[in-house]
Amino acid sequence: MKHRVDVHVGKRIRHRRWMVGMTQQQLGDLIGIKFQQIQKYETGMNRVSASRLWDISSALDVPVSFFFEGANGEDIAEHQPDMVTEVAVARGDLLADKEALELVRSYYSIPEEQRKRLFELARVLSDAA
Fold first, then answer.
1. What pTM did the predictor assign?
2. What string of pLDDT tens digits covers the 129 residues of the chain?
3. Which of 24, 89, 106, 128 is buried deepest, with most CB atoms within 10 A?
4. Locate the HTH cro/C1-type domain: which residues (predicted)?
5. In this structure, is residue 18 part of a structural domain?
6. Residue 96 lies in a domain
7. What is the CATH number of the domain that holds 19?
């Protein structure tokens, strides 16, 4: 049976991997395992050992603690799946919202000068609302 913390850590691995534009194969190659094992970690089917999580955090350029951020309150989202996005936003875990994740990824793919202008536009529009 999956433990909710293992599922949470797996989701955080998947989200970070996706944010940096890395495939499961690429992550597996970096840490010396097959992509199928990455799949099992990301779904929570297999528990990630401490040393493996250390390797993954290095490959994804985040501290190990990143994978545990937002673990409190996870049970709320499990029991009320229709409120996952609201719970994620309320606890500051925007990476749990697929639309927000896609927006951030797209934002950082824009050249820096244009990105600054877009940021200023978003700030003006949010103040107007």
1. 0.61
2. 888 999 999 999 999 998 888 999 999 999 999 999 999 999 999 999 999 999 999 999 999 999 998 887 544 344 444 444 444 444 455 556 677 778 877 887 888 888 888 888 888 888 876
3. 24
4. 13-67
5. yes
6. no
7. 1.10.260.40
The CA-based dihedral angle spanning residues 63, 41, 34, 24, taken in that order and rounded to the nearest 10 degrees: -70
Residue 24 to residues 27, 35, 49, 127: CA-CA distances in angstroms? Answer: 5, 5, 18, 39
- Return all residues near 51 (Cβ < 8 A) that are at least 6 apart: none
Angle at 83 between CA 81 and CA 88, to 5 degrees: 105
Residues 6+ away with beta carbon under 8 Å from 77? 83, 84, 87, 88, 96
CA distance 121 to 34: 43
Which range of residues forms the domain containing residue 47?
4-72
Residue 60 in domain: yes
Q: What is the DSSP letter of 60?
A: T
CA angle at 102 for the pair 18 and 63, rounded to the nearest 5°: 45
Residue 22 domain-assigned (yes or no): yes
Q: What distance in Å separates the CA atoms of residue 84 and residue 97, rounded to the nearest whole number?
A: 8
Nearest to 6 by CA among 60, 78, 58, 85: 78
